[in-house]
Amino acid sequence: MFGKKKQVSTINKEQLELIKNAQKRIRQKKRLYIHFVIFIIGAVFLTIANSVLGIGEDFTIAGVNWIVYAILAWLFLFTYHFISVFITHKFMGKAWEQQQLEKLVNQQQERIEKLKEGFLKEEHKIVQSQAYKEVQVEAKADKNKKLNELTIIVAAGEDNAIGKDNDLIWHLSNDLKRFKQLTSGHHIIMGRKTFESFPKPLPNRTHIVITRQDNYKAPEGVIIVNNLEDAIDAARSDKQPFIIGGGEIYKQSLDLADRLEITRVHATFDDADTFFPEIDQTQWKEVNRVTHDVDEKHAYPFSFMTYLRK
Ligand SMILES: NC(=O)c1ccc[n+]([C@@H]2O[C@H](COP(=O)([O-])OP(=O)(O)OC[C@H]3O[C@@H](n4cnc5c(N)ncnc54)[C@H](OP(=O)(O)O)[C@@H]3O)[C@@H](O)[C@H]2O)c1
Question: Which of left, alpha, beta for 59 (phi over 0: left; psi -120 to 50: alpha)?
Fold first, then answer.
């Protein structure tokens, strides 16, 4: 039903050439063999004709019978034939050998080119992956890199007192001026209670008020958030957002801040109810201090001190 499967020739041009040459070689050897047999028979025949039948018995060259010359001449021809088959035209000939050699060289060169190409591709991939890794590392570093300098600004007594009954304990004119000068044009982050201690929002600053209340109402332009992280996020466009208090917010943000601007009031305040957290001197280094004495506008001596995180 299915018949015989048709044989598909798998012999290529090169194999065909090899077969042809092998056949040619067989023919060459066959001819040499026939030549050898004819030579033996011929030599025997000539010897018999000369010595038995006496043909050309008297014909000599330089004293040697002609038959010796004839057999030697034939032997020479046979030797030439033999050399031509087994030495001169060995296997498929010089041209064929040269052709095969060139073919081999070309194949090797092609292989080298392919290997080179593969190597270059591999190298490209490695370089790309390395570059990718570097870009990733840089991107990660950029992500981790803080884009702004979160700054805490506070006025605190020697005992870290900062307020009482939701108000400041002192009135220091130069401190207020400095507060205005440093914070103007920036985002100011504060707890709800500090915000409520102001008669109205401070001019020329973006207020961010932190409260746990859901529907806290504030004047237009005041940003209300429900936690410190959102407050910092809301100020991300600012190169130097300020945390301006009060006690609860200072406590939560001290570990996150990069810079402290402290007005240290050189006095203690026993009746204070709100305090700034202790500054860990191992974490912070003082980089600037400007001291101010008591005068008619300032009831306490104080120092403007700047700390940077170590
Ligand atoms: N000396 C200074 O430089 C200085 C500066 C600023 C303030 N102060 C003084 O500090 C005092 C006020 O400080 P304070 O500690 O009482 O209050 P505050 O820190 O100003 O505000 C506390 C309020 O913030 C909200 N809050 C705090 N943490 C929160 C969180 N993690 N998530 C959501 N909301 C959060 C809560 O609001 P809700 O209750 O609405 O949820 C909380 O009641 C006042 O006496 C003020 O005059 C002094």
Answer: beta
